[in-house]
C-alpha cells in the first residue's frame, strides 16, 4: 500500500530536471501514504518519471518498488486478495517469483495476460506500468475505486497521482478522477469491469432463501478471511453496528490478533454498545471520547486530507479522523471496516421510500469511491493506515448486487440477509440493532452542522462557485470555503449524489 505519482512526457518533450523535481514535490505532498523510511522510491528515464511512497505491509523486507521485469516497470498502490491463487497459476505457466509481494504478482500477471489481467484481480489498487519496448504505459484502477487515482493530460505531459494535493501548482494541469474499473494507455480509455452493472437475477419469487443466506455467509467469511491474511495485527473500526460487528467477529476466527477501536462523544450509543460487546467477548478494545472542541480543531486537517467540501462527508470524516489517529497511535498499519454494506444491502432509510430501490443500490454503490470510500481512504492514509473493505470483495459484492431486493429489506428490517447470515456470530442486541447513522451513533448529532452554519455567516466564495455548484445551505458554503483555502481546484460539479439531500437530522432523504 502506498501513494504513487508519475509524469509522462509526450511528443518530443523529454523529462528534464524540472519535471524530475516536480515529481519529488508530488510525492512529498502525499508522504503520509507511506512509511518515512520508504519515501520517494523513484525511477527517471528520458520519457517518464515516477515514484512511490511505500507503506510496507506484505514482505516488508524485500518488497521494494518499482518492480522491473522484462522491460516493464510497475508502480503500484494496493492490495490483492487473490494473490495466492494467481501466483499458483503463474508459477504453472513458468513464471518465477523473488518476493512474496502482490506487486510482483501484478507485474507477472500483466506479462502473462496483458490488459486482460485486470479482470482477474480481486482487490483494491491503482497502478501504472511502463514499457521500454514501445515507450508506452498503462494506468488502471480497481472496479470499486477503493484506491484513489487522479490524472491530468496536456499536449506536453500526462500527470498521475494518488491524491489531488499532489498536483499542487502544476501549471496548465487540471486533475480529473480516473474512473474505477478502467485502464488507459495514452490512446484508449477502456472499462474492464462490469461488476457495477450487475442486476438482481430475479424478483425473489420462488427462490430458495435458505440457499441464498448460506451462500452469502460463505462468501462473507471468505472475504473477511482474505482481508485479514497478514502477519501484522489487525484493527477494526467498531461502532457496535451490525456491519462492523460482523466484520470484527469474523476477523477473530481467521486472525489471532484483532483489536477493536471506537470513537465517539461521552455516553454515545456506539461507545456503550461497543464496550458491552467487547467486554462480553473478551476483545481487546480501545476507546477515545472526543469533544466538540476536538472536532472543531480537526476540521482544517479533515478537509486538507479528505479533499472534499460536501458537508455530510466532512462531518462523517471528523469521526473517522479520530478513529484512525487512535489506531495509528497504538501502532497498527492494517485495519478493516464495515463500509459498503449499507449501499449494497439497502441499509439507509431512503431505500424504503425510493421508487426504484434496485437502481438506487446500483447508483449508490457506483458512487462509493467519491463518498464513503473516499472518506475511509483519506482519513486512514492520513495516519499511514491501510484500511480494507471486505464488503466490497469482488465475489461478495457481485453476489450481493445480484440478490433480489426482497432479501435485503424484509418487513421493514434493512440488511435482512446479512443479519440472517451472521446470527450465529453475534448477540441479539447487535443482530437486531437498527441502522443508526454515524452522527447519531457517535453523539456528534447536529453539533458540527450547527457550528458550520454559524461560521458561514458572511462567507462569500470568490467567483460565485457556491452558486454555480448549487450549494443551498450555509454549512455547505462553509466547507467549500475551507476546501478552497487549501488550494484545491474549483470543482466542476459537487460530490453530492444527484436527487438526494439531508434533512434536519442529517439523514439522507429522497428529493422527488
Describe this entry's structure for a reader:
The chain is α+β, with helices and mostly antiparallel strands. It has three domains: 2-193, Aminohydrolase, N-terminal nucleophile (Ntn) domain (Glutamine Phosphoribosylpyrophosphate, subunit 1, domain 1), CATH 3.60.20; 201-439, HUPs (Rossmann fold), CATH 3.40.50; 446-496, no CATH class. It is 37% helix and 19% strand. The protein has 19 helices and 21 strands. The protein has a six-stranded antiparallel sheet, with helices on one face. Residues 497-512 have low confidence and may be disordered. It catalyses: L-aspartate + L-glutamine + ATP + H2O = L-asparagine + L-glutamate + AMP + diphosphate + H(+). Its EC number is 6.3.5.4. Keywords: Amino-acid biosynthesis, Asparagine biosynthesis, ATP-binding, Glutamine amidotransferase, Ligase, Nucleotide-binding.
What descriptors fit this protein?
alpha+beta; 19% strand; Glutamine Phosphoribosylpyrophosphate, subunit 1, domain 1; 512 residues; Rossmann fold; six-stranded antiparallel β-sheet; 3 domains; single chain; 19 helices
Task: Characterize this entry briefly.
The protein has helices spanning 17-28, 83-92, 102-113, 209-227, 242-254, 269-281, 292-306, 311-329, 341-345, 350-353, 357-366, 372-381, 394-401, 416-421, 428-431, 438-442, 447-455, 465-468, 474-485; strands spanning 2-9, 41-44, 48-54, 67-69, 72-80, 123-131, 137-141, 150-153, 157-161, 176-177, 182-184, 189-191, 234-237, 258-265, 285-290, 334-336, 386-388, 409-410, 413-414, 500-502, 508-510.
Amino acid at each position: 500500500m502506498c501513494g504513487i505519482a508519475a509524469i509522462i512526457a509526450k511528443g518530443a518533450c523529454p523529462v528534464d530536471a524540472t519535471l524530475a523535481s516536480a515529481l519529488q514535490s508530488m510525492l512529498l505532498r502525499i508522504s503520509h501514504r507511506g512509511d518515512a523510511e520508504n519515501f520517494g522510491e523513484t525511477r527517471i528515464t528520458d520519457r517518464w518519471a515516477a515514484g512511490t511512497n511505500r507503506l510496507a505491509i506484505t514482505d516488508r523486507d524485500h518488497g521494494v518498488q518499482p518492480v522491473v521485469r522484462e522491460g516493464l516497470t510497475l508502480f503500484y498502490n494496493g492490495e490483492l486478495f487473490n494473490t495466492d491463487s494467481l501466483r499458483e497459476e503463474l508459477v504453472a505457466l513458468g513464471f518465477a517469483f523473488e518476493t512474496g509481494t502482490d506487486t510482483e504478482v501484478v507485474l507477472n500477471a500483466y506479462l502473462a495476460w496483458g490488459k486482460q489481467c485486470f479482470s482477474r484481480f480481486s482487490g483494491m489498487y491503482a497502478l501504472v506500468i511502463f514499457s521500454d519496448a514501445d515507450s508506452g504505459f498503462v494506468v488502471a484502477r480497481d472496479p470499486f475505486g477503493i484506491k484513489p487515482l487522479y490524472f491530468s493530460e496536456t499536449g506536453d505531459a500526462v500527470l498521475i497521482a494518488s491524491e489531488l494535493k499532489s498536483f499542487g501548482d502544476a501549471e496548465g494541469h487540471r486533475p480529473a478522477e480516473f474512473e474505477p474499473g478502467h485502464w488507459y494507455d495514452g490512446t484508449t480509455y477502456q472499462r474492464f469491469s462490469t461488476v457495477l452493472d450487475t442486476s438482481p437475477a430475479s424478483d425473489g419469487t420462488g427462490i430458495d432463501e435458505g440457499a441464498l443466506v448460506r451462500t452469502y455467509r460463505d462468501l462473507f467469511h471468505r472475504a473477511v478471511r482474505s482481508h485479514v491474511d497478514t502477519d501484522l495485527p489487525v484493527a477494526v473500526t467498531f461502532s457496535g453496528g451490525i456491519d462492523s460487528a460482523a466484520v470484527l467477529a469474523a476477523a477473530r476466527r481467521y486472525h489471532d490478533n484483532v483489536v477493536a477501536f471506537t470513537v465517539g462523544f461521552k455516553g454515545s450509543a456506539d461507545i456503550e454498545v461497543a464496550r458491552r460487546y467487547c467486554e462480553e467477548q473478551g476483545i481487546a478494545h480501545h476507546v477515545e471520547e472526543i469533544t466538540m472542541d476536538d472536532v472543531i480543531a480537526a476540521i482544517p486537517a479533515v478537509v486538507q486530507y479528505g479533499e472534499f467540501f460536501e458537508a455530510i462527508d466532512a462531518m462523517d470524516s471528523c469521526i473517522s479522523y479520530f478513529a484512525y489517529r487512535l489506531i495509528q497511535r497504538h501502532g497498527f498499519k492494517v485495519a478493516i471496516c464495515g463500509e459498503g454494506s449499507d449501499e449494497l444491502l439497502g441499509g439507509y432509510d431512503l431505500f424504503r421510500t425510493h421508487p426504484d430501490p434496485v437502481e438506487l443500490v446500483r447508483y449508490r454503490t457506483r458512487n462509493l469511491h467519491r463518498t464513503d470510500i473516499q472518506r475511509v481512504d483519506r482519513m486512514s492514509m492520513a495516519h499511514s493506515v491501510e484500511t480494507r473493505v471486505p464488503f466490497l470483495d469482488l465475489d461478495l459484492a457481485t453476489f450481493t448486487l445480484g440478490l433480489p431486493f426482497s432479501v435485503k429489506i424484509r418487513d421493514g428490517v434493512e440488511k435482512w440477509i446479512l443479519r440472517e447470515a451472521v446470527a450465529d456470530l453475534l448477540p441479539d442486541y447487535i443482530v437486531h440493532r437498527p441502522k443508526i447513522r454515524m452522527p447519531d451513533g457517535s453523539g456528534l448529532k447536529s453539533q458540527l452542522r450547527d457550528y458550520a452554519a454559524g461560521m458561514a455567516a458572511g462567507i462569500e466564495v470568490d467567483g460565485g462557485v457556491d452558486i454555480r455548484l448549487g450549494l443551498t445551505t450555509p454549512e455547505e458554503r462553509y466547507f467549500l470555503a475551507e476546501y478552497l483555502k487549501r488550494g484545491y481546484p474549483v470543482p466542476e460539479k459537487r460530490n453530492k449524489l444527484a436527487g438526494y439531500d439531508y434533512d434536519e437530522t442529517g439523514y439522507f432523504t429522497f428529493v422527488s
